[in-house]
Amino acid sequence: MKDKIAGYSIFVLSLAILGLWGTFTIWGIIDWNASDPFIDPQITIILLTAPILLAMIVVLCIAAWIGWTMARTPPPAPIDLEDFESVEETSEKAK
Fold first, then answer.
1. Which residue, among 52, 54, 30, has the nearest Cα to 41 in the 3D structure?
2. Distances (CA, A) of 11 to 7, 8, 14, 19, 58
3. Which band of pLDDT confidence, cut at 50, 70 and 90, is reported for residue 65?
4. Confidence label for 38 from pLDDT (cuts 50, 70 and 90)
5. Using CA atoms, how far apart are residues 47 and 19, in angstroms rounded to an integer?
6. Which helix (H) or strand (E) element contains residue 48?
7. Helix (H) or strand (E) run with residue 95 in it
8. What's the burial of 28, exposed, middle or buried (CB within 10 Å: 0-12/13-18/19+)?
9. Which of the pair, 44 or 82, is modelled with greater confidence?
């Protein structure tokens, strides 16, 4: 039950943040050249670039983690083909 509450809370919070971010970003772009803008153009730039920066950080951290895992994982053991031949021979003998 606690997992459902946490899941719905995260869902609602993320939609609220997305709605506010979108509203203020679009409002800032529309109001960009106004003589007395409600939202400062510098804040609009931050609202536009912050998600891009966060996305880049997430993607590059995942790429670094994959690279680290690939570098630290030993290669798989080679496949011994004699085992497969013996299985084929036994299946032929069974027929």
1. 30
2. 6, 5, 5, 12, 20
3. very high
4. confident
5. 13
6. helix 41-72
7. none
8. buried
9. 44
